[in-house]
Write a structure and sequence with these properties.
Layout (H helix, E strand, L loop, with lengths): L1 E5 L4 H12 L3 E6 L7 H11 L5 E5 L5 H11 L3 E4 L8 H4 L1 H21 L4 E7 L23 H20 L3 E6 L2 E2 L8 H11 L2 E4 L6 E2 L2 E2 H13 L22 E6 L5 E2 H12 L4 E4 L15 H7 L7 H18 L5
Helix pairs in contact: 1-2, 1-8, 3-5, 5-6, 7-9, 7-11, 9-11
Length: 340
């Protein structure tokens, strides 16, 4: 099987691509290697993938529809894992156009490629941020997501709507996965675990938003990969019991599915910092700040639908995941002191 993995130099994309390569798939990796964060980390992830004979890499922008169409035609993937996007809630306040170009126009390029080349299954990244102003926890796919609080969240909801439309019009099996705060080795330098680890080891203060009164459903990268691959193995189907008179947001009358993928064990931010301090053997200097625009105070995933669909839900204890992350970060920081 040939699988196109977009965002292959990214945190989740590289981990998914490696898992697919290890089980013998041919993987076509796509990434534009932009400078949203230090490309040295992206190149290091790519170097790991390029050790596999079944990996081929293409540097392209998603919004270049012509180049994406040519890639589909030349490589003929049978399935697609679409993980490329402009990430980051806070950055969407500074550079909104980047989010529309990559996350909306770029996603359309992928949908068109899938439509014209008979793709058997598209698995794509959504986000827990789509729940926006919802305060009912844990978040369920059955909840409406009509109140985004950032442009990033709005683009991810747009992706879900676009994928559903292509499933309806062209019968494209598509599965959207709402990721909850992914962390672990080879993570993103713009996210709290890497930001905190770098600052703690350097003796610099960390920025703790909302005075630390935050909860996140931290989800370990290996669990995310397992969920993605299991979903890829099981193409979306129409819900047999879908009722258009009382539509359930979690299902559809077409082959489109949505699943939360989170650890279902939300943890306070201060507790996470404490675990990271223990793993690194050094106390953090905390600078308490107000809530940032576009942020939410708490996230928590109801993953019962995912478990019912593929027989798996994330479960790695935070203590174990933070230990693994801290061990990796120390080795990376020593090997590449300027990369973070």
């Amino acid at each position: 099987m040939t699988v196109l993995v977009t965002g292959a130099a990214g945190f989740i994309g590289a981990a998914v691509a490696e898992r697919l390569l290890e089980r013998g798939e041919r993987v076509i990796g796509l990434d534009n290697l932009n400078s949203y964060y230090d490309p040295a980390l992206k190149q290091a992830r790519l170097e790991r993938l390029q050790r596999h004979l079944g990996f081929q890499f293409h540097q392209l922008d998603l919004e270049n529809g012509t180049a994406i169409a040519q890639l589909f035609a030349a490589q003929r993937p049978s399935r697609v894992v679409h993980l490329a996007a402009q990430p980051g809630v806070r950055y969407s306040l500074e550079n909104p156009l980047a989010y529309v170009n990559s996350n909306v126009v770029g996603f359309l390029s992928i949908l068109e490629g899938c439509r014209h080349h008979g793709i058997k299954h598209l698995v794509y990244a959504s986000s827990s941020s789509v729940y926006g102003g919802n305060r009912r926890l844990p978040f369920s796919e059955q909840h409406a997501v009509n109140h985004p609080v950032s442009l990033y969240a709005a683009t991810k909801k747009a992706n879900e709507l676009m994928a559903h439309t292509y499933s309806h019009l062209y019968g494209l099996p598509a599965t959207g996965l709402r990721f909850f705060t992914v962390y672990g080795p080879w993570g993103r330098p713009d996210m709290a675990p890497m930001l905190f680890a770098r600052a703690i080891l350097a003796g610099e203060p960390i920025r703790v938003f909302n005075q630390g009164r935050m909860e996140r459903d931290f989800t370990y990268i290996d669990d995310i990969v397992e969920g993605v691959v299991r979903c890829l193995n099981k193409p979306a189907t129409a819900a047999a019991n879908f009722d258009p008179q009382a539509p359930d947001p979690a299902t559809a009358a077409v082959p489109h599915r949505l699943f939360n993928i989170g650890n279902s064990q939300p943890v306070g931010l201060l507790e996470f910092i404490s675990l990271l301090e223990q793993a690194l053997g050094k106390k953090a200097l905390q600078h308490l700040e107000p809530m940032q625009q576009g942020d939410v105070a708490s996230t928590a995933a109801d993953t019962s639908a995912l478990e019912q669909w593929v027989g798996f839900a994330p479960h790695t204890p935070l203590e174990e995941g933070v230990e693994r992350f801290a061990a990796w970060y120390r080795s990376w920081d020593q090997a590449e002191p300027t990369a973070t």
